[in-house]
Structures are given as structure tokens and as C-alpha cells.
Amino acid sequence: MARFIFITGGVVSSLGKGLASAALGALLQARGFKVRLRKLDPYLNVDPGTMSPSQHGEVYVTNDGAETDLDLGHYERFTGVNARKSDSTTTGRIYSDVIAKERRGDYLGATIQVIPHVTDAIKEFIQSDIADEDFVLCEIGGTVGDIEGLPYLEAIRQLGNELGRERTAFVHLTLVPYIKSAGELKTKPTQHSVKELQSVGIQPDILLCRTEREISPEARRKIGLFCNIRQEAVIQALDVDTIYHVPISYHEQGFDTEVMRHFGLQSKTKPNLDRWREVVSNLRHPEGEVTIAVVGKYMSVMDSYKSLAEALTHGGIANRVRVNLKWLDSEIFEAPDTVHHLEGVHGILVPGGFGERGAEGKIQAARFARERRVPYFGICFGMQMAVIEAARNLVGIKEANSTEFGPTSEPVVGLMTEWMRGNVLEKRKANGDLGGTMRLGAYDCALAPDSRVRDIYGAPMISERHRHRYEVNINYKDRLEKVGISFCGMSPDGELPEMIEIPDHPWFIGVQFHPELRSRPFEPHPLFTAFVRAAIEQGRLV
Ligand code: GLN
């Protein structure tokens, strides 16, 4: 039977609860256990799909098409376990399910309340869709004390009671700040945060204390004393230079040992963290470096392109080089004489995006890459813009555009209202809701025999994750192919262009899907590995 570990956070947000959960998952895996990771987000959005990436970071998409919080990306990268729809929920979703049930009369006339109806729905979610997992790690979004988080804390408190201590553990992540003027680490915020948890009936079993300085044994003892926790269960989480070092340093601090001890478990195997050490040493000692320009839109928040940045790092690991990212706001390229920002970079990547703002700048960047023979990787929107660029400047269709930006006489990129998923016809309305109406999740794609992408993947049929409304219009295929844009990847029914490449270019590939979502440190995505390799080649030329 699965054991549940609940991870909450206190003091401030952005302490890296997602990473902490992912790293613990990896450590339990390294001890031979089977894990699942889940995220429960207290906000009212039904899913993060409609939230701006600059506010909330990237929207991560699962194979089965759920739009989720970016923490699920950390979970997948650290554990290699593919997340599912049933691994992520929000208050908005919980409430809409409860209200739908109420409307159907499922509650038989009862008065619907937060306790027990909402808390029951949360508990049901936590325990649903579990097979033979040894551990289910549930991260509660937000910070203890947030008004929206209360029903979640109440639900996990109840579960702790119902399942008992042998099957539940509470891990609390806090901050132990260093106060310069006093020259001291301060434990008070942690004490307050734990009090807050205790006031809703939760006694944390393990404290994970983020800190920029070593926490002395004396300070640990003090935290333990005030928080009613054994000193050994107060784990120091010192800042590290790369996120892939987190599992190693947690292990060194005894985090997983404490979890074992809490549950009275013996490890199935002695944890072997060699592969993590290898990744870290690879990152710390590269044999060279390349610079990739990422021409996007949500540049103020690095989290908006989290998986992308990680996938590029993985591509670097595969080639033993450091990948420096030059983040450029595409709007720069809408002013004259600005392409010098792209001079000297070894590769240009235009990532996914939505809306007209900055689109012309992305088209300029794609043009620069094509004409100057700089490796180009267009992802989703980045492929659509590259195709529009080629239609305008190579085919001569001056009005070429995307219907995403309004009506156009030349819809080179347009809205599809019907498509096939396997044998099933999926439909959407042209004027439907924005939430949950995209082509989402994994779809197969057939690769053309003599293409570069076929070589890169080493397989004729692949599956990749999607998140978009618009598609490259197949009606322009012949004209684009005539000028050298090869439609090298197509949906199995041949209707949807999924990948394009320019054979007569050092490396120019556009993909309608999001390969970055599937890249892992131990399994870098082949397209990112190949793109970084092309950038290294380019580096030899410039
Ligand atoms: N805005 C484009 C679409 O909806 C591209 C989306 C994306 O890049 N994820 O098709």
C-alpha cells in the first residue's frame, strides 16, 4: 500500500518546494522504491493553462494532455516518471467538480460545505489512480498561512489521522535567513511557520531548512526544540550551484534516511547516486561553450521557459559543453538595424508563444538564421513564424500570416477545428473557450525517410507533446517545398505538418510540438543534443 508524503512550504514562496519534492522522489527511487509525485495548487484557476507565463511560469503539459504547473516538469526530469492528469489539481478544479456533483443531485440534498465536501474531494484526489507505488509525494502549493491553502491542510491533516503515521509523513520546507548586520542565521521565521502548521493540527515530521550558510548543530538543536522535532529530522538545505546537485546534498544531510526512519523502513537497495554525480561533474567541467539566442516574449520571468532552459542544458551535457543562453525580447527586432544582437551567436531558438505582440520580431530572427546560415530551432510558435517567413520571402506571398492575429487573405498558419488522435476524431469550436481547447498532449508523428530529423531520432515514428491551437496550413505545402522547406514530419494521417526542415542549411528545424517537455538530464532530447552539436559546429566557423 502506498505511503503518502506531504510537502508544505513556509515563510516565503519560491523556496523550491517543487525541486525539493522532485529530489526526494529521486532519492527514494535510488533506494529502489516506486514513486509518484503530485501537485495540489490552491489557486482558483481550473488549470494553469489560462495563466500568463510571466506571472506563473511555464505551463507544463503531460502525455495525456493535462496543462499543469511547471513543478510537474521538475518531477519528470528528476524521476523519469511520466506525470498524468491525475497528478495535478487546483482549487478551481476541485470546486467545479464538487459543484457539478451538487447540481447533479449526487449529494442527495445535503448542505455542501468546505468540510467535509471539499476536503473529501481533495482526499479522493490524493488517493486516486495509484497502482503499486510505494510512495506518493504530494506537494501543496503556496505558503502555509495562505487563505486558499486551508482546505488542503485540513484534508492532509485528516488523511494523516485516517491512514496513521505508518503511512503518512509531513515534510515542511522553510527558510533560515542570514541577517548580515547581526552576522547570524535566524530561526524565528521557521518557528513561526511551524506554529502556523501546528495551529491547523499538523505536526511536521521533517523540516527542510533552506539556507545560504551552514546551520550549526546548535541552531538545529534550537529549531528542533522549538518546533517539536528531533534534531536529526531538521535537515539543512544549503544553496547549491546546480539543481542537479540537490538530491546529492539532501542525501548527504540525511533527508532520505530520516524518511526511512519515520516509516520504519529498510532500503531495498543502498542508494546509488553516481548518475547524479556524473551529471553534476559534467556541468561543472565542460569542455567548451556555445551561446544560443532565445528570442521570445516572456523574458522577465525565467520560469516562463523552464523546461526549455533545462533541455538546452541537457543538450549541453550530452555534448560536454556549457550552453550560455542569451535571452532576447523579440520586439527588439521590430526596430531597424537591430540584427547585430544576433551576430556571433551559435544558434537561434524561437520558443513557443501566443499572440501577435513580438511576432514580427520572431519572423525577423528566423529570417536572419535562414539567410545567415545560423542553426535555427523553432518550437511551436517558432516553427509557425519560420514558415510564415519562408512563405513571405521565399515563395513571395507577401500577405502570409497566421489567423491567430486576425483575418488574413493568406492563412499560412490557421485554426484547425478537427483532427485525428489515433483513430478518434477530435473537434474544437472556432470561437470556443480559451481554457482547455488546444491540441494538447502526445501525438504521433511520421518522419520522412531521408530527412535530417529521421536521422536525429533514429526512428520512423515518434510521439511528442503538443499545446497549440493553430497549425501550418497543408494547402501551402507544395509551394513551400518548391523553395526548399521540407515537410519532414507529418501526423500519421498526413493532414498536419508537425515538422519542417531546410535540407540546404546547416541546421534549420521547426517543430509544432514541445520537445523540451520530454528532455531529461539522463536522457537529453535528441533534437536538443543535435541542435547544440550544430551550434558547436557553428562556433568553429565564427
Ligand atoms: N500560438 C500558437 C498556437 O496556438 C503557438 C502556441 C505555442 O507556441 N505553444 O498555435
Short note summarizing the structure:
This protein is an alpha/beta fold and 542 residues long. It contains 17 helices and 25 strands.
The class by helix and strand makeup works out as alpha/beta
Q: What spatial form do the alpha-carbon principal axes imply?
A: globular
Count of separate structural domains: 2
Strand order of the largest sheet: 13-12-14-15-25-24-23-20-21
Bound molecules: glutamine
Please tell me the overall pLDDT: 93
CATH fold name of the largest domain, please?
Rossmann fold
Description:
With 542 residues, this protein is α/β, with parallel strands linked by helices. The chain folds into 2 domains: 3-278, Rossmann fold (3-Layer(aba) Sandwich), CATH 3.40.50; 286-413 and 472-541, 3-Layer(aba) Sandwich (Rossmann fold), CATH 3.40.50. It contains 17 helices and 25 strands. The chain has a 9-stranded mixed beta sheet with strand order 13-12-14-15-25-24-23-20-21, sandwiched between helices. A 7-stranded parallel beta sheet has the order 5-2-6-1-7-10-11, with helices on both faces. It is globular. The N and C termini lie far apart (58 Å).
